[in-house]
Amino acid sequence: MLKIVIFIHIISATIWTGGHLILALTFLPKALRNNDFKIIESFETRYERIGIPSLFILVITGIYMTTIYAPDLFTFDFENHFIKHILIKLGLLLCTICLALHARFVLIPKQKLKPLAYHIIAVTITSVLFVLVGFSLRSGGIFNP
């Protein structure tokens, strides 16, 4: 069961991170060049159908894996390899949620393209960091001395 959950988690991470890389590297430059908010809006409308469910699946599978690998997570023992990485991932999730809420309720309704561009870049970097931390957790740790 755990291996299936890990596989589903990886597929969801691929969808989430890949979508943001495509947005940041292809659609965003074109939108900025043309000063056209609709380009971002069009991508988001199509991507959200698969991106948001992928994020929810990431959270659910992440919680499940946490109960297995770090059931004592809230001891905040940064010497524990799993706890350290999971807490970093929780911090990244909090950043993602804050950026998404600010974009959804402030920037998108006002169609502020340049500030939204910074959000897109920040969420893309955050999603790549999620992958890096996940890789570190599974590979023995790039954050270990």
From TrEMBL:
Pfam families: CopD (PF05425). The chain crosses the membrane at residues 6-29, 50-70, 82-104, 116-137. The keyword GTP-binding does not apply. Residues 44-119 form the Copper resistance protein D domain. The keyword Transmembrane applies. Keywords: Membrane, Transmembrane, Transmembrane helix. InterPro entries: Cu-R_CopD_dom. This is CopD family protein. It comes from Aquimarina hainanensis. The lineage of its organism: Bacteria, Pseudomonadati, Bacteroidota, Flavobacteriia, Flavobacteriales.
